[in-house]
Amino acid sequence: MTTAIGIVITDHLVAGRLEDQKLTSRPIRFPEQDDPLAEALTAIPRGELIDLMASQVAQLAEEVNWKVDAIGVAVPGIVRQSVVEDSPNLPQIKGMRLAEELGKELAARGINAPVYAGNDADAIAAAVAATHGRFNKLTRVWTIGNGIGYGRWPYVEGVWEGGHITVTLDPRERYCGCGGVGHLEGIMGQRAMRLRFLDLEPEEIFAHAKDGDQRCRDFVDLWHRALAAATASFIHLAGPGRFYFTGHNVHFLELALLRSHLETMVRMTPLQSFSLEILPPDDETALLGAGISAMRSVAG
Ligand SMILES: [Zn+2]
Asked: Which of 95, 110, 117, 230 has the most CB atoms less than 10 A away?
């Protein structure tokens, strides 16, 4: 039996223990309740984040007499060789040698398992591949939350910052957290929606659209068209196949509307066999992915 500990950093921090690719502990969360502003972690200095993660790992490790084979951390942003090269929505971790720093803190607490860090959306794609019997199939995941993440399985070397793909040439589209003009996240991201509608929360925008408010309806349509455009681009690059959608704002997504826009954008018949599926957002899937990615990295 192999034991891994997965940690996921999104708008909150959560850790869980896996045995043979199944979650066997109750997830430990920080903060314990959802922060309505979804900005709880952005204000925490990196040293404190490492401390928080190490404490979660220690608690989970103690329950199995410190027998842990691998530790995996999933974070949003560009993560290569376990270094966070950039993370627009968690600016304090930019440049952080996450696996190394967490590994040091854990060693000081007597835990010496190897630590691996990767992108959060890639972790979800790995978990979906494992739990949906898709290990040999191209699996792509959009995470729709504070930022917009894109993950794929099997993992291939690259950046894959799908949330920052350019979906419009309108120079006024400059709400993306990374500062880039015309980006998908600049339309769909939580922070971007707040900046666009200074008078409405994202929940209200989508509610008002349902009530017929024209400005909100236009935006909801733009939101779906932007996601269709980015998805169509990936279909034109890597082919059709299945796309999964998850994240804490996935309840805004109407698959029928997305599909109708996609069908106007993908016209070549060999590319039209794509399928779309919503996954309810939960910590377990990402935790499973973080643990699986760590185990695979240890196995080489
Ligand atoms: Zn961007």
From this structure: 117
How many angstroms separate the alpha carbon of residue 189 from the centre of ligand 1?
10
- Tell me the pLDDT of the chain averaged across its residues: 93
**Quick check: helix, strand or coil at residue 174?**
coil
Query: How many Cβ atoms sit within 10 Å of the Cβ of residue 210?
Result: 10
**Cα 162 to ligand 1 centroid, rounded to whole Å:** 9
Q: How far is the CA of 135 from the centre of ligand 1 (A)?
A: 30
Q: Give distance in angstroms: CA of 186 to centre of ligand 1.
A: 6
Strand pairing class (83-86; 78-80)? antiparallel
* Contact of 10 with 286, CB cutoff 8 Å: yes
> Is the model's pLDDT at 23 over the cut of 70?
yes
Strand partners, 28: 15
Q: What are 251-260's contacts with CB under 8 Å, separation 24+? A: 252/144, 252/202, 252/206, 252/220, 252/223, 253/144, 253/224, 253/227, 253/278, 254/224, 257/221, 257/224, 258/224, 258/227, 258/228, 258/231
CA of 7 to the centre of ligand 1 (A): 25
70 phi/psi in degrees, rounded to 5: -160, 155
Q: How far is the CA of 245 from the centre of ligand 1 (A)?
A: 19
- Categorize the per-residue pLDDT at 71 as very low, low, confident or very high, splitting at 50, 70 and 90: very high
Phi-psi region of 81 (alpha: psi -120 to 50; beta: other; left: phi over 0): left
Expressed in angstroms and rounded, the spacing between residue 145 Cα and the centre of ligand 1 is: 14
| CB atoms near residue 32 (< 10 Å) | 7
* CA separation for the pair 151, 34 (Å, rounded): 24
How many A from CA of 183 to the centre of ligand 1?
5
